[in-house]
Specification:
With 452 residues, the protein is an all-beta fold. The protein contains 2 helices and 31 strands.
Length: 452
């Protein structure tokens, strides 16, 4: 919760319908006591003012939700800090990551050009920390966290440069991983394996393709494929961490364009094709990997066909959804089964349960919202409008959280079939959802101490 004077972490108990404050961020960490940097008046319009409270992109909870890591960028003459806050004890462990830079983050010598702080009285605006620092990303097993630093391109012909950093849980050292890897950039599109042992990323213009870093030998990286994978949502690790699924574009000898869903084995780098789609003239196709079901390990993939906004334009935008050709697949052991999904007049929103082979499905404009069982598409619950604003499953698969039109957090309970507002007593404040607690009992001792 963020107000004009403080930021507080709350633990919400759905069974009690009550939010309990468990930790208030110190004002330095939440940026309330920072000083505005002095900048040349001619550059004021280019400067992003200090946020009111620490932005959510600069904080991340560990998988067990007991440790909060935050970024405190250099402002008012202070260094750049990374804070690790133990929410159970209130202890704060701080690492300084660069003392001489303001609004910038350190780079790896010889890999990325050094960003010089502005000279006294000069007109050089320091890099905005939001442009340089890419969010914290915890390993799924909670063993540590990574973050990527980005050096924005200096010219139109230049490419942004990236460096991936890692901090082991309980350690103070910030390590540049892949520091001996080929190329000038490491870390774009970084994605953890479920085991927490490997991180994949996309290479630069010289090292084009998908690379993997093994944290048992973190200095180097190994190339898996020469295919470029857009970092948005087109790559996913298998649940057993042995392979990666990704989308690829190619041309056949006939000249026809093809979109393929591929699976690459990380040990042998062997690639097999799971799905192939011909791309017709005048359209674009995307294969969006929605996720894997927890029991069968089935991969849910959405095949999206897009038409141009202006067919007569020499450079159209492909943004018009084509329901006649778009479809969804459930792939198990390499066999793809097409799903009907009830209604396909508009693009659906998907969310896969972490506990069952269930999927919540929302067609926003028609208020058609259901929970389906896979692969048979059995209707588990719905249609019900109450499902239309929720899509974030609890770890046990019994609750779904979302946000309504009034920006209130809401929870739908699959046991009681009731929709409730989360912590209505916090209404009027700015709230951010930080995640479900997988084992709430881990906070029992803390709650007992806080009890009146």
């Amino acid at each position: 919760m963020t107000t004009q004077t403080e930021q507080t972490i709350y633990l919400y108990d759905h069974s009690l319908g009550k939010a309990i404050p468990i930790y208030t961020l110190p004002p330095e960490i939440s940026l309330y006591k920072q000083e505005e940097p002095r900048i040349d008046p001619s550059l004021v319009d280019l400067y992003e003012p200090l946020p009111v409270g620490l932005p959510s992109r600069w904080m991340e909870l560990s998988p067990d939700k007991t440790t909060l890591v935050t970024l405190q960028p250099a402002l008012g003459g202070l260094p750049n800090y990374i804070h690790k806050i133990d929410l159970l004890t209130g202890d704060v462990f701080t690492t300084t990551i660069l003392e001489d830079y303001k609004w910038t983050i350190p780079t790896v010598p010889s890999r990325m050009p050094k960003v010089e702080p502005p000279e006294p009285g000069g007109n050089t605006l320091p890099e905005n920390a939001g442009d340089v620092f890419w969010h914290f990303d915890w390993a799924p097993d909670g063993s540590g966290f990574a973050f990527t630093l980005r050096m924005p391109a200096l010219g139109l012909a230049d490419a942004d440069l990236y460096q991936l950093w890692y901090v082991q849980r309980g350690a103070d050292e910030v390590t540049a991983i892949g520091s001996k890897a080929a190329g000038t950039s490491v870390g774009q599109g970084a994605t953890w394996s479920p085991s927490g042992r490997h991180i994949s990323y996309q290479g630069d213009l010289q090292t084009y393709g998908t690379w993997v870093i093994d944290l048992e030998s973190p200095d180097t990286a190994r190339k898996l494929t020469s295919d470029y994978v857009p970092p948005e949502f087109s790559l996913q690790w298998s649940k057993d961490s042995t392979s990666i699924f990704y989308e690829s574009s190619s041309r056949m000898s006939s000249g026809e364009r093809v979109k393929s869903l591929l699976q690459v084995d990380i040990d042998q780098a062997q690639v097999r094709e799971l799905l192939r789609v011909l791309v017709s003239e005048g359209e674009e196709v995307a294969l969006a990997i929605i996720g894997q079901t927890p029991i069968q390990g089935g991969l849910v993939v959405d095949e999206i066909h897009l038409l141009p906004d202006d067919a007569n334009s020499p450079d159209p935008l492909f943004v018009i959804y084509d329901p006649s050709r778009s479809r969804t697949y459930h792939i198990v052991s390499g066999v793809a089964t097409r799903l009907s999904l009830l209604d396909r007049k508009e693009p659906p929103f998907f969310s896969i349960s972490p506990a069952d082979d269930w999927m919540s499905l929302e067609f926003e404009n028609t208020d058609l919202c259901v929970i389906l069982g896979l692969p048979d598409e059995e209707i588990i619950y719905g249609p019900d409008e109450k499902l239309c604003d929720v899509g974030t499953w609890s770890p046990d698969g019994h609750l779904l959280m979302g946000r309504n039109e009034d920006e209130d957090f809401i929870v739908f309970d699959l046991d009681t079939l009731e929709l409730s507002t989360v912590a209505p007593e916090l209404d009027g404040t700015k709230t951010t959802f930080l995640g479900w607690v997988p084992d709430p009992s881990i906070f029992d001792e803390l709650l007992a101490r806080l009890a009146p």
